[in-house]
Every structure is written in C-alpha cells, then in structure tokens.
C-alpha cells in the first residue's frame, strides 16, 4: 500500500528518516524541474539540494492547511527567487510577443533542438533579452518569472509573494510594459533586436 503524503509527513515530524527519504524521492524530480526553469544547470542542482534540506528542517512548520505539494512548491520557488535576488542571475528567455495584455503575452524557453543557424539566432536574441531583464527591478523580475515562465496562477503568485490579487495584476502589467519599453529603446543592442525581428516579418 502506497503511503499518502499526509501519512509520510506525520512520520517525518516524528523523526522518521525513511519517511523523509520517501517524500523526497517522490518530489525530487519536480523540484529540480522547477529550479531548472529559472536557473542554469549548476544553480538548479544546488537549489534543489537546498530545498530538500529545508523540507527536513522546516517540516514542523508545515501546518497541513494546504497540500504538502503546494508547500514544497512554495519553498522551491522562494529558493530560486532568493538566488535571483542575491546573484541577479536569471534564466535566459525568449519573447515571441511583447504585449502587456495577458492573452497576447508569451514567454518561452528557447528551443535547443533546432538547427545550428536557429540556435545562433536564438542565442543572440536571448542575450539582448537577458540584458533587458537585468534592467528590471527585482519585484518586476520576480513576477514575470512566476507568471510567464513558471505559469503560476494569480492566486499562487499572491500566496508566494504575500500580496493581494489586485497588486499581482497591476504589478505584472507594469513589469511587462517596463520590459517592453526597455526593448523598444533606440539604442544598441535593443534597436538591432527590433530591426532584425522586423526584417524577418518583412516590415
């Protein structure tokens, strides 16, 4: 019979190491995948290890008002955000559309399975986008990462950042507009970024 998370949590709180190992084995892949969406490979590995340690150390703080998976997800997200705040080191992303309206906004991780020419093109574009993201203040970086990279719901972002839903929506809109304005600056390398994109579209 497979133990539920709830049963394992109770056992871990009583000091059962085997129950802890079973919980970690159940979630370690998901934890790493979340970290890898934001951080580079080395940082993601270190962050995932730190999350596992925090689960053990902080398990007594888990009040079971929410699912254990949600609690782990929050610890993982916060660990990644802490690294971003301290090191200002973000996952490079590519933007297909620069529009602050939610339904038209899209961020995606660059596809590394395409041909060499496409990879070089994506690398150059990602370099510019990383520079633009570097110019955003921390609270804007955080909310773009949570919504547009990790695809968290507004409610989840509200819980993670401890802000109201209204603040989530207004901050996200400001963050997207700020990123758009940075990319639209008439200076290098941003102007080249848009000239290249417009040539591809035949504009």
Please characterize this protein's 3D structure.
This protein is mainly alpha-helical and 203 residues long. Helices cover 68% and strands 3% of the residues. The protein has nine helices and two strands; from the N terminus they run ααααββααααα. Strands 1-2 form a two-stranded antiparallel ribbon. It is elongated. The N and C termini lie far apart (62 Å).
> Largest sheet at a glance?
2 strands, antiparallel
How many alpha or pi helices?
9
* Overall body shape: elongated
**What share of residues is helical?**
55-70%
Q: Strand sequence of the main sheet, in spatial order?
A: 1-2
Indicate the radius of gyration in whole angstroms.
20 Å
Give a count of the beta strands, DSSP E runs of length 2 or more.
2
Taking pLDDT < 50 over at least 5 consecutive residues as the criterion, the unreliable ranges are 89-104, 108-114
SS-based structural class?
mainly alpha
- CATH-defined fold name of the largest domain: Arc Repressor Mutant, subunit A
**Distance separating the two termini:** 62 Å
CATH class label of the largest domain? Mainly Alpha
- The CATH superfamily name of the largest domain is Winged helix-like DNA-binding domain superfamily/Winged helix DNA-binding domain
Give the ordered list of helices and strands: HHHHEEHHHHH
Total number of distinct structural domains? 2
């Amino acid at each position: 019979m497979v133990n539920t998370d709830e049963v394992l949590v109770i056992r871990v709180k009583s000091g059962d190491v085997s129950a802890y190992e079973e919980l970690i084995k159940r979630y370690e892949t998901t934890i790493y995948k979340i970290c890898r969406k934001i951080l580079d490979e080395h940082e993601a590995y270190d962050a995932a290890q730190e999350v596992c340690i925090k689960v053990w150390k902080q398990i007594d703080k888990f009040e079971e008002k929410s699912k254990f998976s949600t609690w782990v997800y929050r610890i993982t997200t916060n660990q990644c955000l802490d690294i971003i705040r301290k090191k200002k080191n973000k996952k490079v992303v590519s933007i297909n559309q620069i529009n602050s309206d939610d339904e038209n906004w899209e961020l995606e991780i660059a596809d590394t399975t395409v041909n060499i020419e496409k990879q070089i093109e994506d690398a150059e574009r990602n370099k510019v986008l990383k520079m633009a993201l570097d110019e955003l203040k921390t609270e804007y970086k955080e909310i773009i990462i949570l919504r547009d990279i990790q695809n968290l719901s507004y409610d989840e972002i509200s819980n993670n950042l401890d802000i109201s839903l209204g603040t989530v929506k207004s901050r996200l809109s400001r963050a997207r507009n700020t990123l758009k304005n940075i990319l639209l600056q008439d200076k290098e390398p941003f102007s080249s970024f848009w000239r290249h994109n417009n040539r591809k579209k035949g504009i």
